[in-house]
Specification:
The complex is a heterodimer of chains A (179) and B (419). Chain A contains five helices and four strands; from the N terminus they run βαβαααβαβ. Chain A has 179 residues and is α+β, with helices and mostly antiparallel strands. Chain A has two domains: 90 residues, Alpha-Beta Plaits; 67 residues, no CATH class. The relative contact order of chain A is 0.29. The radius of gyration of chain B is 22 Å and the shape is globular. In chain B, 70% of the residues lie in helices and 0% in strands. Chain B has one domain. The N terminus of chain B is likely disordered. Chain B contains 15 helices and no strands. Chains A and B meet through helix 1 and helix 4 of A and helix 9 of B.
Chain lengths: 179, 419
Amino acid sequence: MSMKNNNQKLILGIYDDPDKVLAATRNVRKAGFDIKDVYTPFPIHGIDKAMGIQRSRLGISAFLFAMTGLLTAVVMMVYMSWGDDWEINIGGKPNLHIPTYIPVTFELSILFTAFGMVATFFIVSKMAHGKNPTLMDIRQTDDRIVIAVNLHNTGDSDAINKIFQSNGALEVKERDLSI
Amino acid sequence: MAHGHEHEVVIKDEKFVMTAKDKRVSMILMGGGLLLALIGILTNHSEHEMLMKRIWANLLADGYFFFIISICATAFIAIKAIANAGWHTSIKRIPEAMGTFLPFAAAVLIIVLIGGGSEVYHWMHHGITDPTSPNYDKVIAGKSWYLNQGFFWGRLIVFFAVWIFITRKFRKWSLQEDIEGGLSFFDKTYKTAAFFTFFFAFTFSMFSWDIMMSIDTHWFSTIFSIYNFATGWVSAITIMALTAIQLKKRGYLSIVNEDVIHDLGKMMFAFSIFWTYMWVAQMLLIWYANLPEEVTYYLDRTKNGWGFHFYLNLALNFIIPFFGLMTRTGKRNTWWLSFVGCILLFGHWNDVYLMTFAGAMKDHHGISHAPGWGLMEFGFLAMFVGGFIYVLLTSLSKANLYPTKHPYIMESALHDVGV
């Protein structure tokens, strides 16, 4: 993401049909333009492939969070039951014994994964309470789908406009986004 | 949606042809299996009663394993129908064909119950509920309101009849839809599936108590039926994935894209964890509570040579699928998915083997010693595998390989799980 410019020039294509959006997105990408994002009020199947989005690494973070939870649980339980300074006899079970460890390890792994993934998702998506999201077009929250393309050269505007129009855009407009 | 895709989807009739090699392989499995089993029986030197118990236990374990796989294939169709799911439509003929094995597995179970019931099932022993008999068992006599021959056979016949009837209906409607089209078969399946799911939830529980849990008649577990369901369900899904992969490899089912296979892999992964959850939950509570009437079940299954099968369960049914199918690559590589799938099927057979044999092979002292896997076990298993493959492929060859006029066939063909 370029933070040097205070202004980001965008060209927006506004649609009302997910099939048209898929076709337009593919064609814009095929023509070599830089798609910023596609904003949609509902999920569109296949849009990630059409945009050429890289695979999410959320799964890897989930695994790492799970391992953190697992390790935390095991370290905590071993520490608590090590030696005889805090030995509690429950049902005559041995103090350090694998079956007793299963539920706590399982629960903490899941707890860490769930919380960790939610936190990661919020950070990656830059979502926070009180933060006003930048909307491309207010109608993207209702019944319109917006394709936003970064306009690096003003000369590209006509070509992109043509692709948008030929794929059934309701409206095409340019916008300066101040960051 | 279709235009712009890399390959165009064409819905057309597609017939599977069972080759001579398919027939030969399944015949060799059946015949060779029977031969191995006979050699195993003839070369067995244990006393007659234990040998008979082992033969019946073999038939029971294999019959039960393939029965729950077949009925879970029908449950798969029913659950997908009431959930209004569409992604699986292109592989729907595979569970439909698996269901056609149901009558054969039911016949095996009935033969075992009639022929070997009194040897395998503690509650079927002679005079067990008769206070004057030396065999009298007070605990089992107290359970005789449920476990008596009349009620047992009555409910079993009702379960078998309803399950086989609905399984056949599902398949019949699906095949008829290929010819006539329209929504009426879809609607009928939907309504019947709602009833079946409800009926199945109760009756499968009782079925698992009757056929499996009542071997150890003194013992009981309230989580047992869902644990058995998990065994059948994950095995059924694995067989669907393996069959779909094999058919694709032969050039059939081009309509099934890799995302559908990926989703089957996800289900194999998820339900392996589900199975482990149930398996551990049952064991853990019994271990905690340490009640004599409950722990005997696990003592029977971890001591006297059974421990190997007990820990093998954990390795084959949890550790290997958990790490093997965790990654996206693991689920999308069909060779690897088939490899893990075969391990998984063998692992669940081992689970059913342990459930059955440790209870059924008890001697006069009430102790069972692991006989180990011999020619008999592998022979009977090969026989059932051969029979199952033969019935599955025959049923597949009798109809289109996918329902061409199902309303969700296009959704399934274009199924997409994202990047």
